[in-house]
Amino acid sequence: MQGKLKSLFKTICEDKLNSYPSAEEAKRAKLRNKQISKTLKQHQKEELKKLKILLLGTAESGKSTITKQMKIIHGNGFDMSERLEKEILKAIKSNEFLEHTEQLWADSGVQECYSRSHEFQLIDCAKYFLDKISEIKNPEYIPSDQDILRCRSLTNSIQHTEFCVPEGGHQIKFDVYDVGGQQGERKKWIQVFDGVNAILFAVDCSSFDQTLREDPTKNRLLEALENFEQVWNNRFLKNVSVLLFLNKIDVLAEKIAKGRDISELSQQYPDTFPDFKSFTPSKLEVLRFLESYPKYSNANSMHPDTVKTAVYIQHLFMKIVKGDLQLKERITKRDSEWHSGHSCETFYTCAVDTNNVQKVLEWLPIPYNPEPFEKIWTAINF
Ligand SMILES: Nc1nc2c(ncn2[C@@H]2O[C@H](COP(=O)(O)OP(=O)(O)OP(=O)(O)O)[C@@H](O)[C@H]2O)c(=O)[nH]1
Ligand SMILES: [Mg+2]
């Protein structure tokens, strides 16, 4: 018995001795600890310089096009393999197909049909590519940046893009999330709401006379307003500021020049769309618009109703921001105190125009700055 106790005591002592680290091991553990906390601190610092941007908005509003612009302006652009992978090249069936398409596009009946394209579903870029079939027919054809920007490809999963922008001696990392805007895609949006620094909400301003692809009974602009109302009043986004991109101003200008008129909506939905004819934008509002589009400053280059329509649409979105317009009964009414943690700034954009987007994006690192949006924007631009 005594012998057994003795050996047990010996085993315990040896185990205990083994469990204590040697001086050398303790030193190494301390060093490892130091390294880990250094890495953590470094990581925290990097996290601080990271901006998570969410691109939201209904389908075909231009979210993916803006992401492509970010890649061109701040990323590495598109390399040859990406260009050759583009849908444009996949869409070219054969030379014979292109010949027939070219002949059809030259037909007056088809042109007449195109002039009424707001009455059916046709992608925006159709005319752009049909006008350049002779170039696309060339076996040497390689899509240009503009061709890639015009190319339409529906987003049906959450797309993540990263790029860095130098700012004040350090790099700000942008984490951009592009989502699908069709009704069925929007339930996925909540997955990326966590830790968002800013929302970039895209609106197709030219869509006032079109209906949704996924629901032909629903007006596209009304859908965009309702969707924006949901985002602006979402409790998870209470402290997230919104950059509202009133997009496709070029398409809007073309439509107005052809005689399309937003006042038709006032007749259909008088509670949402106030009388357009009696609406007059202020001088400052016109100036703000022209600053984004200096080419329209020449009175001959733009129908006067273009700026009027763009500002009219901006007012509709601002009414939602101010709580003066409620579209969906089920959306909880929030007061100005509830909204005090975020703001909304609007921009008139043309997502396929790199200069225009660059001008707007130059301002993007600013949400990193603790100053409120309005103050900075006013100081820089007006
Ligand atoms: N002319 C013109 N075309 C635009 C503009 N913005 C986007 N487009 C075109 O509109 C089409 C749709 O744009 P996308 O960027 O794919 O739209 P999206 O919001 O990502 O759409 P979903 O992925 O379905 O949510 C593309 O063919 C773009 O080239 C614009 O400002 N002007
Ligand atoms: Mg998309």
UniProtKB/TrEMBL annotation:
InterPro entries named in the record: Gprotein_alpha_su, GproteinA_insert, P-loop_NTPase
GO biological process: adenylate cyclase-modulating G protein-coupled receptor signaling pathway
Binding site for Mg(2+): S64, T155
Recorded superkingdom: Eukaryota
Gene3D superfamilies: GI Alpha 1, domain 2-like, P-loop containing nucleotide triphosphate hydrolases
Positions of GTP binding: 60-65, 149-155, 178-182, 247-250
UniProt cross-references to PROSITE patterns, sorted A to Z: ARF, G_ALPHA
GO cellular component: cytoplasm; heterotrimeric G-protein complex
Keywords for the protein's UniProt record, in alphabetical order: GTP-binding, Magnesium, Metal-binding, Nucleotide-binding, Transducer
A Gene Ontology molecular function term of the record: G protein-coupled receptor binding
Subunit structure: G proteins are composed of 3 units; alpha, beta and gamma. The alpha chain contains the guanine nucleotide binding site.
Name of the protein in question: Guanine nucleotide-binding protein G(S) subunit alpha
